[in-house]
Amino acid sequence: MNRFWSPIVEQLSPYVPGEQPKLEDLVKLNTNENPYGPSPRVIEAIQGELGDGLRLYPDPTASRLRQTVADYYDLQADQVFIGNGSDEVLAHAFFALFQQQRPLLFPDITYSFYPVYCGLYGIDYRTIPLAEDFALRLSDYARPNGGVIFPNPNAPTGRLLGLDEIESLLQGNRDSVVVVDEAYIDFGGESAVSLIDSYANLLVIQTLSKSRSLAGMRIGLALGNAGLLEGLVRVKDSFNSYPIDRLALAAGIAAFEDEDHFHRTCRWVIDERKVLGARLQESGFEVLPSAANFLFASHPGHDAASLAAALREAGVIVRHFRQPRIDQYLRITVGKPADNLRFLAALADCL
After folding, report:
1. Hey, which of 21, 133, 186, 241 has its CA 20 to 30 A from 335?
2. Would the pTM of this model clear 0.85, i.e. be above it?
3. 41-63 per-position pLDDT tens digit
4. Are 136 and 148 in contact (CB under 8 A)?
């Protein structure tokens, strides 16, 4: 322990992101980045911002981007919150909404940043086990709580909940906040945004990193009741009044405006996910049903950690988690067809 640290720092267990290797000619299928680039209109918008205007601070309220998102989802601008990536938005939500007397509830197998935020902010929490098939059973959350959060589709499993199930949870949980983390919703699910006007306790969090190919720009969204979002605004303005820079604001607006590019690239990922999943099953893998841009797969005859290491030696990187219950699974990002073929060829050699 460094003697100059605050006492809490030694107790933190930071989130470990997926590897960002600097190797050449690498098939990178480990961090769920979109294999298809952003809209050309995004590049044009960023280039249009490069100039003398960069000496000025950006709009602290991200008003044009908020209105663009609001128009897209048929919401009001005050029902949209913008942050520096969905991780920052999640952090603000944890701080603003989940420091309660009762514990926060989330799945035992889920986005591993959730317990990190709880440790950072001193939030009491309980993990709720997924079913044997890794399905998330919302009936297990029908207990006193200080909030509920889960990704939909779940990560790293990729399994999807229907909108009717989420609404049932909201109907039985009106006294605490329910956060639906929709990082991957555009690859096969139905957003819970349509429920916002009916449930004041619903917060939907999204990112432009996945389906809109802007992981390098760091743009996250929270969508919900205006009164709920005011809590996030208070936290943001006590932390950083200018979280989104001018280039990111321009990129985000252009990404939402180019719906054709968005729908086309999502469809390509979905189609390739089906092909990749079928090929994995032909190779003996058990593949969970996925509505995300990745697959979660296990081979009964091969150790997952050994497979991941062998694939890396062959120039292909996938994600392996050492967490109990899922230590024999690989999470495989859906790449372009050529990348997926290279992965499958390397995998065949490993098997």
Report:
1. 133
2. yes
3. 999 999 999 999 999 999 999 99
4. no
